[in-house]
Amino acid sequence: MASKLANLEDLYEDLLKDLYSAEKQLVKALPKMAKNADSPDLQRAFQDHLGQTEKHVERIERIFSDLGGSPRGKKCVGMEGLIEEGGELLKEDVEPDVLDAGLIAAAQKVEHYEIAGYGTARAWANKLGYSNAANLLQDTLDEESMANEKLTQLAESHINMEAQ
Q: How confident is the model over 2-49, as pLDDT tens digits?
């Protein structure tokens, strides 16, 4: 049975657990995305983001350590759905250039989902007086935004044209 969410503190911790689960799922999904990408630039972007994602996991663990709790115990069904949706593309008979464009689209859905979650978590951390956590969450938010921007640059510079 789920625990009661009685206040903003509870909601904040619940969101962080959700983000933790999302990041852990991504740590497993990113290598598969990199392996299936045709463009070396896109492979590198996924590999680079894997390293960042591992740091995101560590940041949430640090925040929970400061709170005296554990980030475990929740499954992020939103991320599970986004990853599953991206995985469907890999089962199709897709031209490599077209697959790269589709992988970027799937990855950007993930980034936008994370940006929304981290923005909210940072705002709640600030409201609750957790300035150290807010700074860590801002670092992650910045990295998610940069990863999204990198994907946009790859799509617009060559991948979408090659898929055409």
A: 568 999 999 999 999 999 999 999 999 999 999 999 999 999 999 999
- Cα 77 to Cα 6, 16, 68, 80: the distances in Å are 22, 14, 25, 5
C-alpha 104/C-alpha 33 separation (Å) is 10
- Domain 8-163 belongs to what topology? Ferritin (1.20.1260)
Q: pTM for the full model?
A: 0.94
SS (H, E, C) 15-57: HHHHHHHHHHHHHHHHHHHHHHCCCHHHHHHHHHHHHHHHHHH
Q: Is 132 exposed, middle or buried (0-12, 13-18, 19+ CB in 10 A)?
A: exposed
Nearest residue to 134 via CA among 143, 145, 142, 125: 125
Quick check: 117 and 22 in contact, CB under 8 A? Answer: yes
Span 116-134, pLDDT tens digits? 999 999 999 999 999 999 9
Domain boundaries, the chain: 8-163
